[in-house]
Design goal:
Chains A, B, C, D, E, F: Its EC number is 3.1.-.-. Chains A, B, C, D, E, F: InterPro entries: HD/PDEase_dom, HD_domain, NA-bd_OB-fold, NA-bd_OB_tRNA, YhaM_exoribonuc/phosphodiest. Chains A, B, C, D, E, F: This is 3'-5' exoribonuclease YhaM. Chains A, B, C, D, E, F: It comes from Botrimarina hoheduenensis. The structure is a homohexamer of 320-residue chains. Chain A folds into two domains: 93 residues, Beta Barrel (OB fold (Dihydrolipoamide Acetyltransferase, E2P)); 192 residues, Hypothetical protein af1432 (Orthogonal Bundle). Chain A is 42% helix and 21% strand. Chain A has ten helices and nine strands. In chain A, the strands form three sheets. Chain A has a five-stranded mixed β-barrel with strand order 1-2-3-5-4. In chain A, strands 6-7 form a two-stranded antiparallel sheet. A two-stranded antiparallel sheet of chain A has the order 8-9. In chain A, a hairpin with a 2-residue loop joins strand 2 and strand 3. The longest helix of chain A has 27 residues. Chain A is elongated, with a radius of gyration of 23 Å.
C-alpha cells in the first residue's frame, strides 16, 4: 500500500506507517498518568502525536531523529489534526525510504547546487571571481550550505532551503539586472551568496532545526562576516591578488544591512544600490515562499480563508 | 553653442539660455527690497533661481510653465547650486526645443506605451482581457496615464513617470513569474496597471506637479477604485460577460493593500499572493529608482557620500 | 416558570430552557472521546457550553442559528461560567419567544428608525436633502441598516447596533452643534449616516455576526464609498440637481478619515472640521458603550475591578 | 481712524497704531548691524516684527508686556506676514483701549464665570457640593482660574482660555449626560473643573504666557492633585463631613488619566467611565478649537488649503 | 528530617512538610469533578499545587496565608514542576519555623534598616537632614517601608524587597559619587529614598502581594508626592526651618521622572542631573536583580538557556 | 596677556589670539559676495566664525587643522555666540601652546592610560589575562585607543574621550562589583575594554572628528569583533593556550549587545548578566557626561533652563 503523506491525512483516518520522530516528551496528565508526546514528520509536513498510558520504556525505545513505525488514528483537535498512536516502535531499515522524509530530494539539491555554481562561475571581475572560488572550493562550507535551512520557521525551513532561497534570489537578480543598469550584478550575486551564509553555523540541522549557542548569541550576520574575512584572505592566496578593501567593505555592508531596518535586527541601513536591491530581493522571495506555504498548509478545507496569523496580523485568502 | 543642461552646471559658471519656469514668487528681503525667486528646469533637473532687485513688472512678465530666457551665474549656496539671474524674459518660440525639457521624449513615451499595450494584450482570461480593453480603449485615461508622473517627489516624479514605473513592474513581473508558479501572472499584471492608476487624478501635471484637491483629500487608492468600478461595467458591455464579483474584489484588494503596511497609508494588509507580489515589486522598482536618483543628483563631487537624507535616516554611498 | 437570562445565571444553577445556538463543534478529548462544544445565547449574553460523550448524531441534530432546548448545569471554569449540558434538542416553535433573543426589541428598532429618519429629514440644503432621500428611499439598504451590528465585538455588536450607534451620534451632534458654530451640522449628520454605512455589507448578521469576504478584503470604508457614488447619482435623478463635486468629495473624505489615525486603519487623516468632529463623536459614543459593556458583563462579583483586558492594557473600576 | 486688527492686515499695508509687545530681542545681522525683533499683538492675533538699524536705546525703551505705538509696513515673508517698523515708542495711556488686546473681554469673562458657577452650584451630592464650594470660595484660585490660558499654544492659548475651555466641556457634558445614563454627571463636572486646574500654576500669564519652573518640572497634573488635597480638607471643614476616600481617589484618577494615553503624558489610563468621558470631551473641545483656529488664522487667501502643519502631519481644508 | 526547599524539589520526589498557602481555588474539571488548586511557597520559591477530587470541605479547611502540612508528589508538567497533593491540612504551630518562609530573615531586615539609617543620617545640609528625620521618625512609615516589596513581580518582589532595593541604590550611589562630582549626592540619596516610597501604599503585602485600589488607580508616584508634602511640613516643624520650595520641587521631580520615559509611565522626563542618575541607578539595580532571579529560578537543568521570556523578547544564557 | 578661552567669551568682546581651525567653507551671500565660514576651537569649546568679504586667497591661506591667529568681535546670533573675524592668518609656532587646544592634557592621558593598564593587569584568569596582554601589547592599537574620542558628538567627543569613558566604566565596575556577586568582574572589565574599541577605526580624529568610510558603512561593533578575533589568536600564541570558544562567544556578545535595544542599533539584546551590566554602566556614564556637558556649555546666563534639545525632547534644569 502506498504511503499517505502528512499533508494527505484526514480526520478519523487510520495510519500504519513510518515517520521521522522529534521533540519527544514524557508527561503526566492531570490524573497523574504518563503519556508520550512527540512530533512525527515526513517531507510533506509534521503532525503532533500523543500516545496515552505510556511508560519510561516507551520513552526510551527511540531517539529524536529516529524513524519510527506507528499505528494510530488521526483526530481534529482545536482546529489542528493530531495523531493518537496505539503502538510505536523504531522502524526496520527496509521499512524506510529516506526520500519520503526530505522536502528536497538529493537530486533536486544536486541540480540546484550545479545551477548555483553555474551562476557564480559567471562572475568575471578578478577579485570577486577569486572570492567565489574561495567559497566554492571549501567543501565543508559547501556541504553545509547545501544542507542548511534558510530559517527556523517562516520560509524555506527545511534542509536545502538555504540553497533554494539563495539560488532563487540569484536567478531573479540575473533576470532583472538588465532592467536596472545602475546595479552591479556581480556584487549583487556575491551579496546573495553571503547574506545568509552565516546560517550554516547559526542553525544546527542534522536531525532537527535549532539555533546553535553561537547562533543565538551572535546571529548569522556576525558569523557571515567572520567567514568572509577568512575567504577574502583565501581569495588573495588563490588569486594572487590584493583584495580591494573598499570592495570588501561593500560586501560586509550588504551582509550587515540586508534586514533593511533596525527594527528587524539590521545592524545598518542599506546605503549602496546593491544593498538596497539585496534587501528587496530577499523580501520578495521570502514573503512569497512563506505566504504560499501558509496557504498550502492550511488544514481547514471548509473556508476560503486561512486561520488568523498573529505575527502577520491577518488571515490569508485561499480563493474560491 | 550647444545647451548646458542643469545637471552639467558648475559653481561660477555663466549661463545664457532657455529654461522652463515654475514656483515664481516676489518676496521682500530683510532690508525690504524685493527679489524674484523661481525654479528653472530642463529635462536633466531643476535649479533654484533668484533675481535680486526685482519689481512687480518682472514678476508679471511671465507665467509659471512658460519658457524663459535667462542670463546669470551659478553659485554654490549651502551645499546646493543656485542661479543668480541678471536678466530674465520670456523666450521666443524659435529659441525653444521642447525635447530639452522633457525627461522622457515623446518617442520614449510612445515606445513605452506600445510595450505596455503589448504586455497587457497578452492577458487571455476573458474577464481580465475585457477589462484590459476597457482601460486601453479609454483614450482620455490612456492619454493621462502616459503623461502622469508616478509621484510628487521620490521616484519617477516627471511626466511619463507613471507609465515608466508601471511598465517596469509589468516586465519584471513577466520575467520572474515562471519562478513563482503559485502566482497568477494575469491578475498580477492587472494589479500593476491599477495600483497607481488613481494618480492620473490624484496629481495635476500639466505645467507643474501638484496634488489636486481630490488627490489630497481622497488619495489615489480611492480614485483607482472608482475608475475600476466603471471599467468593470464597460468590460461587461464590451465582453458581453458578467464580470466575476470575486475577481473584482481581488483586484480592488490589490489597489487597497499595495502600500503594504497601515503606517504607510495602506487601507488593508496584502492577503492574497498577488497582492503580496504587487507590494514587493512596487517597492523594488520605486526604491531602486529613488536611490539611484539621489546618488546621480548629488552635486557634491568631493565626497564618496551623498548628503544625509532625513527621511531615509542615512547618507548614500556613491563609491570610489 | 419564567426564563433565567444568561446574565442571571450562577455557579451550580440548573437550567432547563431554550437558547440560540452558534459555533457548534464536535471534538475529541484527550482520551479520544467526542464532546460537543457550542455557544448558547439570549438577549442578555452568551455562555460557552459543552456536552460530554456526544456523537455525530448529536452534532447533526441542529444547525447554528437554531433555537435549542437544553437541560444542564452552570459551572465556574477558569473565571468564566460555562454550561454543562445533559440533554439538548431543537426547540418547538411554541417554546420560543423571539424577543428573548434580541438585544434590541423590534419596537426599539422601529422607534430608533423613526427618530433617525426624523433627524435626517431636518436636513434642508437641497443636495444633502436629496442624498438623504436617496438613502432613506432605498428599502433594501434601510432594512439592512436597521438590522446590522456596529461591529464584530467591542461596541454595539448586536443586531440593530449600527442604527443605535448612528442615531446616538446624530442626536449628540445636534445637541452640541449650537456650541460649535464653526461646524456645518448638516454635513456632519450626513457624515454620521455614511461613516459606518459600509458595515451593512462588511458584516453578515443573519444568524451570527461574521465578516463577509468583501468585508475582510476591502473593509467598510471602501464599501461605503461605492454606495455613496450610487446614491449621489440617485440624488441627482431624484432632486433634478447636479450634486456638487466638492461636497461629494467632502463626504467621501469623512468616510475615509473617520478612524482618525493611520495606525487605526484610517486611509486619510481628518482635514475638515466636520471630519474632525465625526471622528471625535464616533470615539466618544463607541468608547462609552464598549467600556460600560465590559463593566456590566463582568461576572466576578467579589472584586471592585473587572479582569485585565489586554487590548485596553488595563482593568476597569466597577466602584464600591 | 478705527483700528486695523492684526487679523485684518494685508501685504504692503501701512500701520500706525498701538500693539502689545512681547519677546523682544536685539540681534546683529550678518553684516554686524543690530536690529530689533519682537512680537506685536492685539486680541485678533500676533505679528512678527522687525526694526532694522536698532540700538540698545531702542531695545531698552520699552518692556515686554508694554503697549507700544508703531509705524511701519506689512510684508509677506516666507508665507507669513511680518511688520517692518520704522518707529516704535511706548504708548501714552490715552492711546490705549485695553479691550483691543484681550481675546476675551472682561464682560465675556464675567458672563462665563457666572455660567460656570451656575453649573457647579447645580451639584447636589453633599461631598461634591462641599468641594465645589471650597474651590468657588477660594478667591485667589478663582481669579487665576478666570485669567489663565488653557495652554501655551494649540487651543485656548489666551487669558480666559482655561475658563472658556472648562465651561464648554461642562455645558457639553450636561447636554449629553441624559443620553449616557451610566455616567455620573456630578463626578464628571468635578472632573472637568479639576482636570486642567493645575494650569493656574503651571503657566505664568500676567504679561506673556510661559511655563513656570514648577510647571515645567512637575506638570499641571501633579499641581492639580496638590490643590485637590487641600480643597478636600477645606470641604471637610466647610461641610462638616468626612470626604469619602474612594470619591477622592476617583477624582484624583480623573486628573491623572485625562490625557488618555501614556504617550501623551498621561500618568494613568482611564479606568472609570467618568475618566473615559472626561478624556473624550477634552479631546473634542480642544481639537475643534485648535483646528478652527488654524483655519481662521491662515493668511494665505489664494488657496483652499492651509499650509502643512508638521505636528498634525497634514494640511487643513478651508473649503471653497 | 531536614526541610526540602521548593528550589530543591525534583521530578518524582515525594514531599511531606509545611508550606505557606495562597491563591486557593476550587474548580470543576471537564468531567465535572472538583479539584483544589493553590500555590505553596517557602522562602526559596513557589510551586503550583493541585489536589484532585477535592470537596468544599477541603476548600474551607484553611485560608490563604495559612501554613499547611502537605503530603504529595512532584511532577514536571509543561516545563514547570507542580505538586500533586494527596493530603493537606493546617499545620500545628510546633511544625512551623517562620524563618523558612521569609526571603529575608528578620535579622537581615534589621541590619539593612540600620545601614539605611546610617547612610541617611550622613546627610548634612539642614533642610534635607530635617526631611530625613521626618521620614525616619515616622514609625508607621518605617515599619511599612521595611516590610514592603519593591514590586508585584520582576525584581525584589518579596517582603523587605523595597528596603533591599533602596539600600542597594544608596550604597552604590555613595560609592560612585566621588567619580561624578557634578552630582549632589545628598539630593540623590533623598531621591532614592523617595522614588519608590509610594509603594508602601501602592501594594498590600500582609499575606500576599497585590495592588491596593489606590495603587491601581493612582500609582506609587502620586502617593509618594503626597507623603513628601506632609513630610516637608514635618521637617519645617522639626527643623524650625522654611523648606526651600525649589528643593522641594527638585525632589518631587525626581519622583515623577524616575521611570525615565513616557512609555514606561514616567510623568516627566528627567531634567536634572540627579534625576538622570536616579533613573540610571534604579535601572541598574532592578535589571541585575530581575535577570539574576530569572536565571537562578530556571528549573530546566538540561539546557544552557532559560526559556524564552516574552516581555524581554529573549532567552537568557546560563552558561556552561 | 593671558588667553581667553572659548567658554569665557561674551557678547561684544574683542578677540586677538590663536585657535584651531576646522570646517572652513567659502560661500556667496545672497548678494553674491563671498564670505568665509569656519569653526574655531580650543580645549574649552568651539565657536562658529565668519569673515565677511573674503576671497579665494583667504580660503587657501590655511588648512583645516591649522592653528590660525584671529582678530575679531564676538556677537550673540540666534541664541548662540559667533565670532566675526576682521583678520585671520596662520599662526607662528611660537604663538601656539598646544596644551590650550586639547581637552585632555598629555599628562591626563598618560595618567588615565596607566590607571587603565593597572585595572586590566588585575585580571587573573589565564585566558582573559592573555587577551589583555594582546591588546596592551599592540602599540598601534593603544596609541589610537588613547587618542580616539568616544563619539562624534553627545559624550566624550574629544581626543582621549574613549580612554576616559572606558576607564570611568572600569573603575565604576570595580567599585560596585562586590555588591553584585553574581557578576564576573573580569569578564565585565574585558567587555568594557572591547565595547567601544571599534571606535579607533570607526572615527578619524587626527585633525577633526569624522566617520571613516568603514565606520559609516560597518559601524564600530563589526570592527571591534574583527579586532577581537585577531587578538584572541594573539592571546593563544602569547599565552600558549587554546582560547575557550564559549568565552570568546560571550565577549563578542557583549560587543554586539551593548546598545541594549534594536532601536538603538543593537545587533542583539543582552542575554548574559555581564552584557546587561555593561549596557547599564555605559548608559550611566554616557548620560551623566552628556547632560553635564549640555548644562555646562549653555551660553544663556539669564535663565535657569537650558534651551530645548529636540533629540532629548526636553530642556535641562541648571538650578538657581
Amino acid at each position: 500500500m502506498s504511503r499517505r503523506f502528512v499533508s494527505q491525512l484526514n480526520h478519523n483516518e487510520t495510519v500504519e506507517q513510518v515517520f521521522l520522530a522529534s521533540n519527544k516528551q514524557l508527561r503526566p496528565n492531570r490524573q497523574g498518568n504518563l503519556y508520550l508526546q512527540l512530533d512525527l514528520s515526513d517531507r510533506s509536513g509534521t503532525i503532533a502525536t500523543r500516545k496515552w498510558n505510556a511508560s519510561e520504556t516507551d520513552y526510551k525505545s527511540f531517539e529524536n531523529g529516529d524513524f519510527v513505525y506507528v499505528d494510530g488514528t488521526v483526530q481534529l483537535f482545536q482546529g489542528n489534526l493530531q495523531l493518537i498512536a496505539q503502538r510505536l516502535r523504531t522502524a526496520r531499515p527496509d521499512e524506510v525510504d529516506e526520500s519520503d522524509y526530505q522536502t528536497l530530494q538529493s537530486d533536486d539539491v544536486c541540480r540546484m547546487r550545479d545551477r548555483l555554481i553555474g551562476v557564480l562561475r559567471g562572475v568575471k571581475s578578478p577579485a570577486l571571481a577569486a572570492l567565489v572560488e574561495a567559497y566554492l572550493g571549501d567543501e565543508v562550507f559547501m556541504e553545509k550550505f547545501c544542507r542548511a535551512p534558510a530559517g527556523m520557521k517562516n520560509h524555506h525551513a527545511y534542509q536545502g532551503g538555504l540553497l533554494e532561497h539563495s539560488l532563487n534570489m540569484m536567478e531573479v537578480a540575473a533576470l532583472i539586472a538588465p532592467r536596472y543598469p545602475q546595479l552591479n550584478l556581480e556584487k549583487l550575486l556575491l551579496g546573495v551568496l553571503l547574506h545568509d551564509s552565516g546560517k550554516v553555523d547559526e542553525l544546527s540541522y542534522d536531525r532537527e532545526i535549532a539555533y546553535t549557542d553561537e547562533g543565538q548569541m551572535l546571529g548569522h550576520m556576525c558569523q557571515a562576516i567572520s567567514h568572509l574575512e577568512q575567504k577574502a584572505k583565501d581569495a588573495e592566496r588563490r588569486g594572487q591578488i590584493a583584495f580591494p578593501p573598499v570592495l570588501l567593505m561593500e560586501l560586509k555592508h550588504m551582509i550587515l544591512s540586508h534586514h533593511g531596518e533596525y527594527a528587524y535586527g539590521s545592524a545598518k541601513l542599506p546605503m549602496t544600490l546593491e544593498a538596497v536591491a539585496l534587501h528587496q530581493l530577499d523580501n520578495l522571495d521570502a514573503k512569497l515562499a512563506s505566504m504560499s506555504g501558509l496557504i498550502n498548509d492550511c488544514p481547514n478545507t471548509d473556508s476560503r480563508w486561512t486561520q488568523y496569523f498573529p505575527n502577520l496580523d491577518r488571515k490569508l485568502w485561499k480563493g474560491v
